[in-house]
Amino acid sequence: MPAFFLTMMACLVVTLAGREQVRTARLAARLGKSAILLVIVWVCAIATSAIAAWVATLMAPLMPGQAKQMFVAIALLLSAAELAFLRAGPAPKEPTRSAGAIGIVMFAAQLTDAARFLVMALTLQTGEPVLAAAGGAFGSGLALTLALLAASEWEARVPQRLLSYLAAGVLASIAVVMGLSARGII
Description:
0% strand, 186 residues, 81% helix
Protein backbone atom coordinates (compact mmCIF):
# COMPACT_ATOMS: atom_id res chain seq x y z
CA MET A 1 0.00 0.00 0.00
CA PRO A 2 2.87 2.49 0.41
CA ALA A 3 3.21 2.51 -3.40
CA PHE A 4 -0.41 3.65 -3.76
CA PHE A 5 -0.25 6.42 -1.16
CA LEU A 6 3.18 7.68 -2.17
CA THR A 7 2.23 7.83 -5.85
CA MET A 8 -1.16 9.35 -5.07
CA MET A 9 0.32 12.17 -2.98
CA ALA A 10 3.15 12.83 -5.46
CA CYS A 11 0.79 12.96 -8.44
CA LEU A 12 -1.75 15.08 -6.58
CA VAL A 13 0.87 17.72 -5.73
CA VAL A 14 2.58 17.63 -9.12
CA THR A 15 -0.70 17.82 -11.03
CA LEU A 16 -1.92 20.71 -8.88
CA ALA A 17 1.33 22.54 -9.64
CA GLY A 18 1.44 21.59 -13.33
CA ARG A 19 -0.14 22.73 -16.56
CA GLU A 20 -2.95 20.23 -16.96
CA GLN A 21 -5.14 21.63 -14.22
CA VAL A 22 -4.93 25.10 -15.84
CA ARG A 23 -6.03 23.60 -19.16
CA THR A 24 -8.85 21.70 -17.43
CA ALA A 25 -10.04 24.78 -15.52
CA ARG A 26 -10.04 26.85 -18.72
CA LEU A 27 -12.02 24.21 -20.59
CA ALA A 28 -14.55 24.01 -17.76
CA ALA A 29 -14.85 27.81 -17.74
CA ARG A 30 -15.50 27.93 -21.50
CA LEU A 31 -17.57 24.77 -21.95
CA GLY A 32 -19.20 24.42 -18.54
CA LYS A 33 -18.67 21.91 -15.75
CA SER A 34 -20.05 18.93 -17.62
CA ALA A 35 -20.14 15.28 -16.72
CA ILE A 36 -18.53 14.48 -20.09
CA LEU A 37 -15.49 16.60 -19.25
CA LEU A 38 -15.25 14.93 -15.84
CA VAL A 39 -15.35 11.47 -17.44
CA ILE A 40 -12.66 12.50 -19.95
CA VAL A 41 -10.44 13.75 -17.12
CA TRP A 42 -10.72 10.47 -15.20
CA VAL A 43 -10.40 8.18 -18.24
CA CYS A 44 -7.24 10.01 -19.34
CA ALA A 45 -5.76 9.94 -15.84
CA ILE A 46 -6.42 6.21 -15.50
CA ALA A 47 -5.20 5.32 -19.01
CA THR A 48 -2.01 7.39 -18.87
CA SER A 49 -1.10 6.16 -15.39
CA ALA A 50 -1.62 2.57 -16.49
CA ILE A 51 0.57 3.09 -19.55
CA ALA A 52 3.32 4.71 -17.45
CA ALA A 53 3.28 1.81 -14.99
CA TRP A 54 3.29 -0.72 -17.82
CA VAL A 55 6.31 0.93 -19.47
CA ALA A 56 8.10 0.83 -16.11
CA THR A 57 7.42 -2.90 -15.79
CA LEU A 58 9.02 -3.40 -19.21
CA MET A 59 12.09 -1.44 -18.07
CA ALA A 60 12.44 -3.03 -14.62
CA PRO A 61 14.11 -6.31 -15.65
CA LEU A 62 16.71 -4.39 -17.64
CA MET A 63 17.88 -2.30 -14.68
CA PRO A 64 19.88 -3.25 -11.60
CA GLY A 65 19.00 -1.63 -8.25
CA GLN A 66 21.26 1.41 -8.56
CA ALA A 67 20.11 2.07 -12.12
CA LYS A 68 16.50 2.09 -10.93
CA GLN A 69 17.36 4.60 -8.24
CA MET A 70 19.21 6.78 -10.78
CA PHE A 71 16.20 6.57 -13.11
CA VAL A 72 13.99 7.77 -10.27
CA ALA A 73 16.37 10.69 -9.68
CA ILE A 74 16.32 11.60 -13.39
CA ALA A 75 12.51 11.33 -13.54
CA LEU A 76 12.22 13.62 -10.52
CA LEU A 77 14.62 16.09 -12.13
CA LEU A 78 12.66 16.08 -15.40
CA SER A 79 9.43 16.59 -13.48
CA ALA A 80 11.00 19.50 -11.61
CA ALA A 81 12.18 21.05 -14.89
CA GLU A 82 8.72 20.72 -16.39
CA LEU A 83 7.12 22.44 -13.40
CA ALA A 84 9.71 25.20 -13.28
CA PHE A 85 9.94 26.09 -16.96
CA LEU A 86 6.81 25.04 -18.83
CA ARG A 87 3.59 27.01 -18.51
CA ALA A 88 0.11 26.42 -19.82
CA GLY A 89 -0.50 27.90 -23.24
CA PRO A 90 -3.01 30.65 -23.83
CA ALA A 91 -6.66 29.89 -23.27
CA PRO A 92 -8.37 28.68 -26.45
CA LYS A 93 -10.56 31.33 -28.03
CA GLU A 94 -13.03 28.82 -29.39
CA PRO A 95 -12.41 25.42 -27.81
CA THR A 96 -13.90 22.47 -29.57
CA ARG A 97 -16.98 20.88 -28.12
CA SER A 98 -15.92 17.49 -29.44
CA ALA A 99 -15.39 15.03 -26.59
CA GLY A 100 -13.06 13.00 -28.80
CA ALA A 101 -10.82 15.96 -29.59
CA ILE A 102 -10.73 17.08 -25.94
CA GLY A 103 -9.89 13.51 -24.91
CA ILE A 104 -7.05 13.21 -27.43
CA VAL A 105 -5.50 16.49 -26.31
CA MET A 106 -5.81 15.63 -22.61
CA PHE A 107 -4.50 12.12 -23.15
CA ALA A 108 -1.46 13.30 -25.12
CA ALA A 109 -0.65 16.04 -22.62
CA GLN A 110 -1.01 13.78 -19.59
CA LEU A 111 0.98 10.95 -21.16
CA THR A 112 4.14 13.06 -21.02
CA ASP A 113 3.52 15.20 -17.95
CA ALA A 114 5.44 15.23 -14.68
CA ALA A 115 2.93 13.00 -12.89
CA ARG A 116 3.40 10.15 -15.38
CA PHE A 117 7.20 10.40 -14.96
CA LEU A 118 6.58 9.94 -11.25
CA VAL A 119 4.30 6.95 -11.83
CA MET A 120 7.06 5.34 -13.90
CA ALA A 121 9.71 6.15 -11.33
CA LEU A 122 7.71 4.95 -8.35
CA THR A 123 6.68 1.78 -10.17
CA LEU A 124 10.35 1.02 -10.77
CA GLN A 125 11.29 1.87 -7.19
CA THR A 126 8.49 -0.02 -5.46
CA GLY A 127 7.90 -2.87 -7.91
CA GLU A 128 4.13 -2.42 -7.51
CA PRO A 129 2.77 -1.37 -10.92
CA VAL A 130 -0.93 -1.80 -10.14
CA LEU A 131 -0.79 0.17 -6.89
CA ALA A 132 1.43 2.88 -8.38
CA ALA A 133 -0.84 3.25 -11.42
CA ALA A 134 -3.94 3.39 -9.21
CA GLY A 135 -2.34 5.98 -6.93
CA GLY A 136 -1.20 8.09 -9.88
CA ALA A 137 -4.62 7.96 -11.51
CA PHE A 138 -6.40 8.83 -8.27
CA GLY A 139 -4.05 11.71 -7.39
CA SER A 140 -4.11 13.23 -10.87
CA GLY A 141 -7.83 12.67 -11.30
CA LEU A 142 -8.57 14.32 -7.98
CA ALA A 143 -6.40 17.36 -8.80
CA LEU A 144 -8.00 17.76 -12.22
CA THR A 145 -11.48 17.35 -10.74
CA LEU A 146 -10.75 20.22 -8.34
CA ALA A 147 -9.64 22.35 -11.29
CA LEU A 148 -12.77 21.42 -13.24
CA LEU A 149 -15.02 22.34 -10.32
CA ALA A 150 -13.24 25.66 -9.76
CA ALA A 151 -13.32 26.51 -13.49
CA SER A 152 -12.68 30.24 -14.01
CA GLU A 153 -11.86 30.81 -10.35
CA TRP A 154 -8.88 28.43 -10.46
CA GLU A 155 -6.42 30.87 -12.00
CA ALA A 156 -7.76 33.76 -9.94
CA ARG A 157 -7.40 32.00 -6.58
CA VAL A 158 -4.45 29.62 -6.94
CA PRO A 159 -0.92 31.12 -6.94
CA GLN A 160 0.11 28.87 -9.81
CA ARG A 161 3.63 30.12 -10.42
CA LEU A 162 4.57 29.97 -6.73
CA LEU A 163 3.09 26.48 -6.42
CA SER A 164 5.02 25.34 -9.50
CA TYR A 165 8.31 26.70 -8.20
CA LEU A 166 7.82 25.19 -4.74
CA ALA A 167 6.98 21.76 -6.13
CA ALA A 168 9.89 21.97 -8.59
CA GLY A 169 12.28 22.86 -5.77
CA VAL A 170 11.14 19.94 -3.64
CA LEU A 171 11.39 17.50 -6.57
CA ALA A 172 14.83 18.78 -7.58
CA SER A 173 16.10 18.47 -4.00
CA ILE A 174 14.86 14.90 -3.73
CA ALA A 175 16.37 14.13 -7.16
CA VAL A 176 19.79 15.39 -6.11
CA VAL A 177 19.75 13.36 -2.88
CA MET A 178 18.60 10.21 -4.70
CA GLY A 179 21.17 10.67 -7.46
CA LEU A 180 24.00 11.15 -5.00
CA SER A 181 22.79 8.15 -3.03
CA ALA A 182 22.64 5.98 -6.16
CA ARG A 183 26.22 6.94 -6.96
CA GLY A 184 27.30 6.09 -3.42
CA ILE A 185 28.37 9.65 -2.63
CA ILE A 186 26.04 9.98 0.35
